[in-house]
Amino acid sequence: MEMDVCNSNDSATKMDEPKTATKIEGWLQRCRESRRLVLIIVAIALLLDNMLLTTVVPIIPEFLYDIKHPNLPLTKELPIRPVVTTTTNDTAIIGVNATLAPLQREMEERHRDLMHETVEVGLMFASKAFVQLIANPIVGPLTHRIGYSIPMFAGFIIMFISTLIFAFGRSYSVLFLARALQGVGSSCSSVSGMGMLAERYPDDEERGNAMGIALGGLALGVLIGPPFGGVMYEFVGKTAPFLILSALALGDGCLQLLVLQPGVKQQDVEPPTLKSLVSDPYIIMAAGAITFANTGIAMLEPSLPIWMMDTMGAVRWKQGVTFLPASISYLIGTNLFGPLGHRMGRWLASMLGLIIIGVCLLMIPMARSINHLIIPNAGLGFAIGMVDSSMMPELGYLVDIRHSAVYGSVYAIGDVAFCLGFAIGPALSGTLVNSIGFEWMLFGDAILCFMYAPLMYFLRSPPTKEERKTLIGEKSSVRYINYQNDEEDE
């Protein structure tokens, strides 16, 4: 009798197993078809990429300085004036001067070394953007052939390796390699992620909202990165923040394997060529706005912490926290102007953003303490969010109305524009700080933003594909009529 019960239970269990497996498969299938889950994966990938991008900002300058100056680290405080007993005799005055002279020399030497290090740190920070610039024109067309999922997963693997190199690197050359390698991973993640969202959200307004949320993930990474890096470096050490980031990246990679199932997927529609997109003036204007909007903050990343150390005596945590207002306001700006930009006109949101960026850049050199940096940094982040969340979906819209709805190459151009700002900014900041000074560097960039802003008006009502064909046909007809008239005159 017992044997019969056991056998009946076993058979019931065997009957339930296919049902359970079917339910799991159905759940997985729903997850893979969910646009929101894809949006979450893209947002997490951008968050981790930009956390790594900005975590190094408060760590690398001081870490490199301390490697080169083991006997005079930046944690050693140099008193401005020595403490002496109150006396008026000549011997005491000579003693004060003798004590002050070495301290003054140490302070001047530290100032020169910090200014020189601005160049090296700027080149390291710019290396990621330069490599990303090279990789983007390759990754964009590649997504047309194999789809978005494989490059997206490749971006995770490369970022994971780069993070581990940052964790254990102990020299300028090794850290430079890690930063440059991150550029390849960022190219794969950004181009594939934005292309994937543009494909999953064909409606222009929904696409703007989705990209605003994805850029919010980017903003959150920029927001968390500097204070996270500064605090962890101050109290735990250099290795810890990068190990935490590598563990988070591993989790995102597992999620991609489960949901995206990396595999080859070719596009059904004939994609626009990279040449046709680059020669489109409206796409170039939109991309240029992204470049000019991000150049200023990119210049500040390597130079502002060093300028604060030099002029304010700012310690590590203050250097990390100074970017906090910009990151918070960027997060607000991207989420607000994702939907709002579509309603008020993305051209107008972008034009106002560029003007606000210029005003904030003019205000930053006037700061005399970390508190004075809060308002201009907050305004800078908010305005960059206005431009990025308006122009990223605008690129997809321009491809829809003027080319064909395949997005890999256009977001390669958008990412090139973003990287161009973060390549030019850090690369030039060290040289410009040494030649014309920190203040004039920011004044010059502000003037460029003011000059570029009026060009956004041309994006108010760009001609569609049909209008372009009509215009080209009319021009051809006019040329043909003129040619016939010339022949009759002859």
* Secondary-structure class: mainly alpha
Strand content: under 5%
Radius of gyration: 28 Å
Element-level helix/strand string: HHHHHHHHHHHHHHHHH
Main sheet properties: none
- Let me know the average pLDDT: 77
What do you see in this structure?
The model is unreliable at 76-88 (pLDDT under 50). The protein has 490 residues and is mainly α. The protein has helices at residues 2-33, 35-55, 60-68, 90-146, 149-168, 172-200, 204-235, 239-259, 274-278, 281-311, 316-321, 324-344, 346-363, 374-402, 408-435, 438-452, 465-489. Helix 4 crosses helix 6 (172-200) and helix 5 (149-168) packs antiparallel against helix 6 (172-200). The protein is 81% helix and 0% strand.
Give the topology, please:
Elements: H1 2-33, H2 35-55, H3 60-68, H4 90-146, H5 149-168, H6 172-200, H7 204-235, H8 239-259, H9 274-278, H10 281-311, H11 316-321, H12 324-344, H13 346-363, H14 374-402, H15 408-435, H16 438-452, H17 465-489
Helix pairs in contact: 2-6, 2-7, 2-8, 3-4, 4-6, 4-10, 4-15, 5-6, 5-8, 6-7, 6-15, 7-12, 7-14, 10-13, 10-14, 10-15, 10-16, 12-13, 12-14, 13-14, 13-16, 15-16
